[in-house]
Design brief:
Blueprint lengths: L2 H10 L11 E2 L1 H8 L3 H9 L7 E4 L2 E5 H15 L1
Antiparallel strand pairs: 1-3, 2-3
Amino acid sequence: MSKSNVALQKTSEISFDNLPEQSFIRIKTIAKLYSVHTGTIWRWVKENQFPKPIKISSKVTCWQVSVIRNHLKKLAETNN
């Protein structure tokens, strides 16, 4: 196995539950967590139904893990 394959494998094994609160995640990961398309996430942001992202560079937009966890928790509370 090449070094790049090992790095990809290790990255893919990182669970959302194990990420530090201060970590950042990208939209594709969030879309998988919510089981929706990335366009749905952007629509929710526009409609103020989802937390606003953080731009960490001109081409990189992400969300802080703690913000997404809080959003998921609120959704779970409203559905119970």
